[in-house]
Design a protein that fits this description.
About 40% of the residues lie in helices and about 25% in strands. By secondary structure, it is α/β, with parallel strands linked by helices. The radius of gyration is 21 Å and the shape is globular.
């Protein structure tokens, strides 16, 4: 068990991966699978073994955030998920006011589960809505309707959860600008503290790729580039009018509710990944856990990929991760020495500006962020 009295501990984030779902969505390329209750129960016990074995890795750290993602973590029984959180609190030095998030899907939540989450110290929920249009939800392969989402949201509020994120997705096949605006306005009526709004990515290896890839049989159903860009502008403008601050390219929050865990990733804070396929960043080393479920259940949670980061790699990540934040990146002497030419070039193109020692993307730079951020690869 970790001594929690040290005031000199460094910050650490913990990510816990629950790889199970009721049914894999047609667009999803995450490490997730349907599984029977016996498999899920076995996984929870192995996960607890892993976190106990890796507790030593957190001896010099204080845990400032925990994010339980998936998959669908809310597919677990409430006592199972609460048990994971309690074990984390037992074996790691968890900050008193640490942000502890659980990803939840409508259709898998109930009062008992939410009570278990709350009582174990979970203080933030992330609800995967994606769309308020039932036709769009069905196309995505979601297991819920908008009505079921509303019921889950209302239940979370009634159980005392005052920090709730809603995940949304634009640029869906057949989606119009008007239907996207309706989704935004229907969600805003609920006044969540945080909204993540991403554009659909067509990933290889998914059913969507076969249908909607460039040149695919239904590629024409995707909104064109101009409509997709307008959806992005609508998101920015509609949410800003309701008091949501865009603090990252695709993330918006009421003042004081930016996701601490996600900010840690973009700022390259150290994090420990627990569970199947989870990644960690410790010092100058990045690693990824075993991805084979059968091997993991047999107790093999060794890292399968270990990368020793060169200074070049760390500088690249500092820029292309940090510039996703609207506050940008503080330019140290080292960053200026390495990137002055790139910074000046992007300034001339109107994609970046410098102010009070920080570099930030302009609105145009955000529009073409894939290009702008790639310029920082050495």
């Amino acid at each position: 068990m970790i001594n929690k009295s040290s005031e000199s501990q460094r910050e650490l984030e913990i990510y816990v991966h629950i790889p199970f779902c009721v049914r894999k969505c047609a667009y999803c390329d995450f490490l997730s699978v349907p599984a029977e209750e016996a498999v899920r129960s076995r996984y929870v016990e192995v996960l607890k073994d892993e976190l106990r074995q890796k507790a030593a890795a957190g001896e010099e750290h204080v845990v400032t955030s925990v994010f339980i993602g998936g998959g669908t973590p809310s597919i677990l029984e409430g006592v199972q998920l609460a048990g994971i959180v309690k074990e984390l609190r037992r074996w790691f030095s968890v900050e008193e006011y640490a942000e502890i998030t659980v990803e939840c899907n409508p259709g898998t939540l109930n009062r008992e589960k939410l009570a278990c989450y709350r009582d174990s110290g979970v203080n933030r929920l992330s609800l995967g809505l994606q769309s308020a249009d039932d036709r769009e939800l069905k196309l995505l392969g979601r297991i819920h309707t908008f009505k079921e989402f509303l019921e889950s949201f209302s239940l979370a509020r009634s159980m005392g959860f005052a920090n709730v994120n809603v995940d949304l997705m634009s640029a869906l096949p057949g989606q119009s600008r008007e239907s996207w605006q309706r989704t935004l306005n229907q969600v805003l009526a609920l006044k969540p503290e945080h909204i993540s709004a991403y554009s659909l990515m067509i990933e290889e290896g998914t059913p969507f790729y076969e249908r909607f890839r460039p040149g695919g049989p239904e590629a024409g159903l995707l909104p064109d580039e101009d409509i997709e860009r307008q959806m992005y502008y609508d998101t920015r403008d509609i949410l800003a009018a309701e008091g949501y601050q865009r603090y990252e390219i695709s993330n918006y929050a009421k003042p004081g509710f930016a996701c601490r865990h996600n900010l840690g990733y973009w700022e390259r804070k150290e994090y420990l990944g627990l569970g199947l396929g989870a990644s960690s960043l410790r010092g100058h080393v990045r690693c990824r856990n075993q991805e084979n479920l059968e091997a993991y259940l047999a107790g093999d949670w060794r890292c399968q990929e270990v990368t020793e980061l060169a200074r070049k790699d760390e500088l690249e990540e500092t820029m292309f991760l940090g510039l996703r934040k609207t506050e940008g990146v503080y330019l140290t002497e080292e960053l200026l020495k390495v990137y002055e030419r790139v910074l000046a070039d992007l300034e001339r193109k109107g994609l970046l500006f410098r102010e009070k020692g920080r570099a930030r993307l302009t609105e145009l730079g955000i529009d073409v962020s894939s290009y702008a951020l790639a310029e920082f690869l050495l």
